[in-house]
């Protein structure tokens, strides 16, 4: 009691490690403070007779400090378990803090109420579940979004689906003939026979008189003016497609034989190369004229 | 002081065991707490460890700079002589100039140290020792002592013979002092600023202070490597260690013999100190510093006169009773009734009456009366009246004509 005044003067005027100063108010970081504010009445250091309520694992305890134990920090706080019944707990506080200052009793009861409400809320949340707020991370979100788009493109869904359907068709899942687009059907079925046909075609063509006729089929001399290999190839593909379509149609008419898998052959490329040279020569000749 | 007048000495091996039950508290612990003395002494004593330093006396002055004087459309500050370089013509020598010498360059003969009166120093030390025995002050300073069995913590002399750091550590753990050491360890930070390049890389907190007595004690080496822990002999208690930063309440661990020696060092209130020649402990201004208790005590309250009530002489602002009804009522309580009666009377009077309308008959009668009067007028007045009327007619006709013309 005697020292309290001195202690408060030293702590308040000087330095207290638990004091938190804000513009409007001073707070107390001490774990035993009833109110959480820094004031002489609620300072656990400056009052040798003090009481707090603390919560531990869902149970409320009354911590009491008296002047008799002031010199023994280890035994300083007496821990009293409060009843789970609210009214009984209040009665307990009254009993333990009998003849204490009204401030102390009142604040302890307030603190008990607050803690109990908090516990109720915790229990409710645990039982009902609650929406956990997660912060939106802009960068991550942005990144994931872009990656999703890329993945979508890379997945080639349409092609995959197409393949799957074709496989099913071949496997005979759709046994009964359904309505379908003839051209597409031919295209699909013909694609397997394309390579075969290509082989035969080329062989036939080679046997023919000139290579130029092949070129005509595959190249347009006009297109060579651009002098791009890629363009040539694209044109090739388009022409090839048309050619193959014709062929598949013919094939369909002739046979329903199964088509063997044909390896990809590259004589076409070779051919092209040779033809290119020849074409270039021809071009030169043309220019000369 | 409610500091425990009796202190227990603990066994070094077992914190629950007490070797000496009741030792009287040395009188130092009853010294009044005087943070003002401690603060003053600390600020001055802290300067005594400083080493002289200075700025190079030639710094910024190694030019043959001269002022160009007036008439050159430049400021009159001395300018660097010569040519052929950027530096020539630039300002030099002034404290405001770039690359100029600082104002009042530091000299080596600056007064680095401060002397403090011995008595003041001793009082400060005594207060600081007293503060180490007050739990709230030690807590407020930031030491983690919630698991320490007793403050002041006195342990048997056995720890003075500790040689191994492990022994020291285990001892601290047993007495709940290790939490403080852990605090020191966890809050070790690289210092901000240049000092880290000058040998002060880390900022380290202060932990427990171990005070021993026997000069042959080996515990210095045992505790030396424990972070935050300082070891000091009783005879050489240092304010800078007892109240680091000028802040009272260091956590101190005393050995039994050191504790006993304090009475000889500082003396008691009964006799002066033996070792500090003629030093007498500071006496408190108030034996009971609890002002609230004194004021509310029976002895004081008996003599205290009853509180005076303030008497209001007059209103702050005068209100006019002729305009302000409340002010009127205050002066004349009957005024309220009078007002009410007047209102009632008016109401009564106007109860049967209707609104007065202009009567045609009345009008005629009034006109007839007028004509009668006019007839009785003299000729002169008649003529005058006629003239006036003519003018009137003329005027109005003119007006009319003008209006028509427009």
UniProtKB/TrEMBL annotation, chain A:
Ranges in coiled-coil conformation: none
Listed Basic and acidic residues bias regions: 252-261, 280-289
This protein's name: Protein MAK16 homolog
InterPro entries hit by this protein: Mak16, Ribosomal_eL28/Mak16
Keyword Flavoprotein applies: no
Superkingdom of source: Eukaryota
GO biological process: maturation of 5.8S rRNA; maturation of LSU-rRNA
Domain Ribosomal eL28/Mak16: 6-118
Species the sequence originates in: Paramecium tetraurelia
Family designation: Belongs to the MAK16 family.
Keywords from the UniProt entry: Nucleus
Major place of residence: nucleus
PANTHER family tied to this protein: MAINTENANCE OF KILLER 16 MAK16 PROTEIN-RELATED, PROTEIN MAK16 HOMOLOG
Pfam families: Mak16, Ribosomal_L28e
UniProt region (Disordered), positions on chain: 190-289
Keyword hit for Nucleus: yes
Record's GO cellular component terms: nucleolus; preribosome, large subunit precursor
Bias (Acidic residues) ranges: 194-239
Localisation: Nucleus
From TrEMBL, chain B:
GO cellular component terms listed in the entry, alphabetical order: cytosolic large ribosomal subunit
Domain named Large ribosomal subunit protein uL4 C-terminal: residues: 278-351
Residue ranges crossing the lipid bilayer per the database entry: none
Gene Ontology molecular function: any one: RNA binding
Pfam entry (one): Ribos_L4_asso_C
Entry keyword set: Ribonucleoprotein, Ribosomal protein
One record GO biological process: translation
Protein family (similarity comment): Belongs to the universal ribosomal protein uL4 family.
Protein name: Large ribosomal subunit protein uL4
